[in-house]
Amino acid sequence: MWRWNPRDPKPAHGSPVEHLLASAALGTDPMLRAAAEEVAEGGLAAALPLLAESREDAETRTATAEVLGRAAADRIDDLGDLLDTADRADLMLWLGNALIAHALRASGGAAERKAAEAALDDARRALEAAADLRPDDAAPWVALQTVAMGAGADREEKDRLWDELRSRDPHLFAAHTGRVRVLSPARGGAAEEMFAFAGSAADTAPGGDPLPAVLALAHAEFLRAEHKRLRAEGVFDFVAGQAMGRLYGEAVEELFGLARAWAGSAVPHPRDVQAHHLFGWAFHRAGMTEAARWHLTAVGNLYCEVPWGFFGDARTQVARAMEELGVRPGGHRPPAGAG
């Protein structure tokens, strides 16, 4: 296991690795990635068995619905053809996630924004139908929390959705990352409340669960908000980035303890790659090369938008970090608990 050393020396730069990286947006599980690729090419039926198999595990179901939703973002109309063959709750959950992904792709002028708002409203309707059809399912509520953020819902509504989520699964990873983002200063929240929430989630996480990584997300959200504030004050982007500095002191020591405890008892989880990226980002920013290298080796060749995309192009950011650390994407992944 890596040791505590906030002053690890930086290794020599490695060879360019960006072309070796693949997005984790279409899943980290090989079977899910294969199904997502088939869906993106028009084979929508490939998704149905995975959705059916996910019903008993909220973590798997939430991740599966998100990935298959992204894969079907350009095939919204085709999903209607499955009404006669698919479980309706599964289909409404999938449709809601696909509409969210479709809305997130919209950018540009007023027409695009209006189309995105309409897609989010349709997503809300589909997800509410899914929630009614399977009341114990937490996955529709995770997506509804995302819809609320995108639609600019008020705090009362966001709190209501969080209560619904917490009552169904108190440790669901995607629910907590969404809640951290709801509470972020970048969205009008308070840093103190965000850190208190993330810290509590980390402290009460089940043993071996990657949930403590949400505290690293809180730090990323805080730094993003600070960067946004400095840019709004007219500070040049490069200067703003340098002014934010590194993570240091007790904040990094706390993250290190959480990451080490997770790594020492981790059990396989659908959000492992995401958690490794969150911790890897934090330790890279803190200059803790040994810990950062360990976590970024564990992701294989997959990169995540969060949190790297907060500070530039995610793929470029991950590649640059890996080069600095001497990590070769797709190389040996340390097994759970290894060191």
Quick take:
The protein has helices at 30-40, 48-53, 58-71, 76-79, 88-105, 110-133, 139-151, 155-168, 173-183, 191-203, 214-232, 237-244, 249-265, 272-285, 289-297, 314-325; strands spanning 22-23, 302-303. The protein is an all-alpha fold and 339 residues long. The protein folds into 2 domains: 1-27 and 173-339, no CATH class; 42-169, no CATH class.
What is the element layout, followed by pairings?
Layout: E1 22-23, H1 30-40, H2 48-53, H3 58-71, H4 76-79, H5 88-105, H6 110-133, H7 139-151, H8 155-168, H9 173-183, H10 191-203, H11 214-232, H12 237-244, H13 249-265, H14 272-285, H15 289-297, E2 302-303, H16 314-325
Parallel strand pairs: 1-2
Helix pairs in contact: 1-3, 3-5, 3-7, 5-6, 5-7, 6-7, 7-8, 7-9, 9-10, 9-11, 10-11, 11-12, 11-14, 14-15
Sum up the structure in keywords.
339 residues, mainly alpha, two-stranded parallel sheet, 1% strand, disordered C terminus
- Class by SSE composition: mainly alpha
Query: Residue ranges: pLDDT <50 for 5 or more in a row?
Result: 8-14, 334-339
Give the helix level as a range of percent: 55-70%
User: How far apart are the first and last residues' alpha carbons, in Å?
Assistant: 3 Å
Order of helices and strands: EHHHHHHHHHHHHHHHEH
Oligomeric grouping of the chains: single chain
Global Rg: 20 Å
Q: Can you count the helices?
A: 16
Average predicted confidence as pLDDT: 89
How would you sum up the major sheet?
Answer: 2 strands, parallel
Organism: Nocardiopsis changdeensis
Protein name: HEAT repeat domain-containing protein
